[in-house]
Specification:
10 strands; alpha/beta; 28% strand; 33% helix; Rossmann fold; single chain; six-stranded mixed beta sheet; 230 residues
Length: 230
């Protein structure tokens, strides 16, 4: 697939209560890239992720998504932007009154998929994530790791153009974390752009993907390859 600019940041800055959360961020992310976003807590990773989602605004500089300045998106355009994204939040945000199937199927229903396709897609992603045995369960009957995998399944089931995963493996054991990472790589191979924040050095050391590190709101590292050591 021919790559092209998907996300472009130019001297991007964010301030909150006179504190510079992000400072002069310059980067471009191309369609089809897999990018690790790393840094200590408070480094600005979550703020950067929220900006890309269009859930907060910047104070200085420029952020273009699909060649349009984000601050110029109207409400409908922002909704359309979010529809093409799959977001794995740090907190699972599952609807407690719905079954696992219903939680995962919701976006497909919203996008107008027929039930037969919804069923097959939900069954496929739950099997991939080893949660197919609890598809009829309510969230309150799930373990923390199962809840997180439902959260991930919901984000990726529609094969979104961009998957933004904020610490997706934080509550998972090593085996299930590897399953999630392999599935994200699979989605990347079929065209999804992946932005994954993580504290897990194992993924970084074992891959050739791009690594962007933030420190105190500044970009201090941006390279491809597994030569980076945290």
């Amino acid at each position: 697939m021919k790559k092209n600019n998907f996300i472009l940041m130019d001297n991007l800055g964010v301030e909150h209560k006179n504190n510079k959360v992000l400072k002069n961020i310059n980067m471009q992310i191309e369609h089809g890239e897999f990018v690790f976003l790393i840094g200590e807590s408070g480094s600005g990773k979550t703020t950067l992720i929220e900006l890309i989602q269009g859930r907060r605004m910047y104070n200085t500089g420029s952020l273009k998504i699909k060649d349009k300045e984000l601050c110029q998106y109207n409400y409908i355009e922002l909704q359309n932007l979010r529809e093409m994204m799959g977001v794995v939040f740090q907190d699972t945000r599952l609807i407690e009154e719905w079954t696992v199937f219903e939680n995962i199927a919701y976006k497909l229903e919203y996008l107008g998929y027929p039930f037969s396709l919804i069923k097959s897609k939900v069954e496929e992603v739950t099997a991939d994530l080893k949660i197919d045995q609890c598809i009829k369960n309510l969230p309150r009957n799930l373990s923390g790791g199962e809840r997180q995998r439902v959260n991930i399944a919901r984000a990726i089931v529609a094969n979104p153009q961009i998957i933004i995963a904020d610490e997706p493996t934080a509550n998972l054991d090593k085996a299930n974390a590897k399953i999630v990472f392999e599935l994200l790589k699979k989605k990347n191979k079929i065209g999804s752009t992946i932005i994954m924040s993580t504290h897990d050095p194992n993924f970084i050391k074992e891959s050739e993907f791009r690594i962007i590190k933030l420190t105190k709101g500044e970009k201090v590292y941006d390279q491809c390859g597994s030569n980076y050591f945290i």
